[in-house]
Amino acid sequence: MEQLSWTGALGPWLNPAIGAAVLAFGIAAIAHMFVALLTAGQRLQHAPGTAARHSPLAYRLTRGGLSLALGALVVVALAYLVGGILLPPDQKGIIGYLSTRFLPVWIALGLTFALSFAFRRRLGLYGHLFDNPVGMIGLGLVLFWVFTAVFAEMIVTFDPVRDVLPGMKNRAPGTPLANPAQGQFDHYLLGGDMLARDVFSRMVAGARVVLAIAPAATLFAFMVGIVLGLPAGYLGGRFDSILSFAANLVMAFPVILLFFLLVTPEIVEMGVPAYMAAVLFLFPIIFLVILWNARYRTHPMRRNILVGLTFLIGGWLYLGLAWDADPLGLISIPDGVLIVFVSVVFVNSPTVFRIVRGLTLDIRTRDYVAAAQTRGEGAWYIMLWEILPNARGPLLVDFCLRIGYTTILLGTLGFFGLGLPPDSPDWGSSINAGRGLLQVFPFPPLVPAVAIMSLVLGLNLLADGLREESLKD
């Protein structure tokens, strides 16, 4: 069996096209930057809404050329993906096989974008993203990895942990298996790592690990920050001073040192991570109970039902997540993952607290808050149903950015071997496993590093799009 090329039968046709498109894009970008610098003064003379319309001809021409070059790049990239899917197996290259393996992701992305675009006027801030090119690109990158995590079992070609195949150690992308078993995939599409595991399968499985921890840990951190930040900003006084001092104290502590402390056997035997989880995992339940009580205090029956369901379901999840004592045996977190999860929540919570507190200090002076106070509304009702909804724009932006920060943090923890098992396919552990031979076999650490970069880039672009659209509301 032969080694796979990157482009297969598409190479003679599309490789010259992609080279020309990249060259044209580079020339157009340089020309546009040069013209933009020369005409900056002329464009600033016009009003903000009319600057583009009255820009100099050279500026508009170079901007149009840059758009055309970018469009050509996108068209050629799509040709690689679509052509790779349509080609017969014996003519596919690595890109063709990769695009075929990701077919469930492409279908899910297409359906999501089509439905979202069709109903964008009814979807609020999310729908407004489809009027923002930057936000759409960021959303596409994020959803790509989300759907990759969802369909990981359909995408992987080998077991990311158990399949260690003879002769595949540190192999180049597209290397065929010497003796593939019946029904086994024939190639390591992105090469093999130093333990002869498939790099592509570990990248895909790593997306599931990262996206199972980062968004959930960020959400828990927001629950802690909201529950403590709202009353600190609204009520002020000694309560605010104590919490602000505690937040500053945690933020001043070295993060990596904290993680090293939490994974030491002595600290684990003392139960410190478990006790931290027991406290931090209470905050979502506290948040929901206060939310229902503030909103439906004049409807006791509805309030009691919602509070009862929150205690029932939340208590069941709490026992399983915090104490590994789920009576049904369905919910649990491995010890290593629990340490990482608790560490990330603990580190992020003070920053969220400060953001929520600052927004509350500003919003509490608004007229609608004074009107709610005049109506005799309670403090928690004003905080949760008057102040918090009007702070949603900055909080959504920070939520996206914080998932990106958490992704980088998880990669750092995996790189240092903290918390997660050594054979975990998470991207940080994969980078650490391949860093020793980076100059000779770069793909084992390079592939997960690019995965981290693309996910964080998507989250940052999505945050930029949300910020721009929230300012228009």
From TrEMBL:
Residues 207-463 form the ABC transmembrane type-1 domain. GO terms for cellular component: plasma membrane. It is found in: Cell membrane. Gene3D superfamilies: MetI-like. Pfam families: BPD_transp_1. GO terms for biological process: transmembrane transport. Keywords: Cell membrane, Membrane, Transmembrane, Transmembrane helix, Transport. Its main location: membrane. It is a multi-pass membrane protein. InterPro entries: BP-dependent_transpt_permease, MetI-like, MetI-like_sf. The chain crosses the membrane at residues 20-40, 61-82, 94-115, 136-158, 209-230, 242-262, 274-293, 305-325, 337-356, 399-420, 440-463. Belongs to the binding-protein-dependent transport system permease family. This is Peptide/nickel transport system permease protein. It comes from Rhodovulum bhavnagarense. The lineage of its organism: Bacteria, Pseudomonadati, Pseudomonadota, Alphaproteobacteria, Rhodobacterales.
